[in-house]
Amino acid sequence: MPPSIPATLRAQALGLLASGAATSRSDLVDALQVAPSTVTAVVRRLLEEGVLLEEGVGRSTGGRRPRILRLRDTDGVYAVAELGGRHARAGLYQAGGVLRGVEEVPIDIADGPAAVFRTFASLVAGEPLLGVGVALPGPVEFPSGRVVGPARMPGWSGVDPAEHLSVAFDRFDGPMLVDNDAKAAAIGEYVTRGYDTDDMIYVKAGTGIGACLVTGGRIFRGGGGLSGDVTHVRVADSGERQCSCGSRGCLETVASGAALTRQLGSASVGSPGLGSPGLGELIVAVHDGDPAVVAAVREAGRLLGVALSGLVNFLNPDAVVIGGALSSLGVYVAAAKGVLYERCLPSLTGSLTIEASTAGPDAALTGLGHLLRSSADVRPS
Predict the structure, then answer these.
(1) Could you give the 3-state DSSP secondary structure of residue 363?
(2) Alpha-carbon distance 323 to 246, whole Å?
(3) d(C-alpha 295, C-alpha 314), whole Å
(4) Cβ distance 176 to 117 under 8 Å?
(5) How far, rounded to the nearest angstrom, does the alpha carbon of residue 4 sit from its chain's CA centroid?
(6) pLDDT at 268
(7) What pLDDT digit, counting tens, does each position of 273-301 carry?
(8) Residue 174: phi, psi to the nearest 5?
(9) DSSP states of 139-175
């Protein structure tokens, strides 16, 4: 396992090298005020990633002449986008690991891949591209990228998105990647954390719910690449509500943003003025302290914890990270955390980290960029 590198330290080192304020390991030690061994670990990581080059030697100041460090020259960026049912979030990922130009625009996923990918392409038009990546809110085979039975993507089942993506980008012949949004976000979370977690369960809780296991620094994908579908795990106390998959009692029906907005739009739950809320309105209502909404969100978080407890007992991860829009609600995360401590073995929770995402809304974009840059699951090649 490569050494753990804090994301902030990595970013600071890249900034110093990019600006010319540092050109060697000794410069980085002086500027960052950290131990030489720490700088050595940072530089080794960046060299492994292909972000840095080490060439030539500088002037001696009394000891061995320092090796010169510089960022690898690149003439392009990676175009990355995460698609939701009603919006697309797109950005440009630089070879040095920096995400820029993030923009969110409305879409309708039901318009199909051709129309949606044209919108994506228009957002990055004119940029010199090194690769293109898309994260989709449904089951995606890996590495083919074929969408398999998505519940919230009408017209996409069985589609080969890569072909449509190629057309939208004028038959771009560089690397193209299509992956599930939770898996891409898990990679982004892992990278943002500085590769410091051996085994992590990442849950993306937004309109729907998806999950991913990162183990030994790589995504666990399963036989067909379709692992992580906790959406349709049956949950006790679910009320046997009908799920979009045709079954009853699935986690999606009680713990997702879609389930909450349906529930709170009914006459029996929520403040009279809330009406039929969207996920954004629901989040605002929680921050405003609406008691009925807070109670409903707390119960949703509790049921998420119920579903995850079996996974924690079985897999013994180092961390459980909750991302997606609902991760911004402390009551949701706290409720899931409480159930995990209650239902999981003390020997497993003693060192278990359970917390909200640190990568935030750009987790999937960061993950896609990293995948494209490294051409590996997570660990840089």
Answers:
(1) helix
(2) 26
(3) 30
(4) no
(5) 19
(6) 44
(7) 454 568 899 999 999 999 999 999 999 99
(8) -85, -175
(9) -B-TTT--B-S-SS-TT-TT--HHHHHHHHTTS--S-
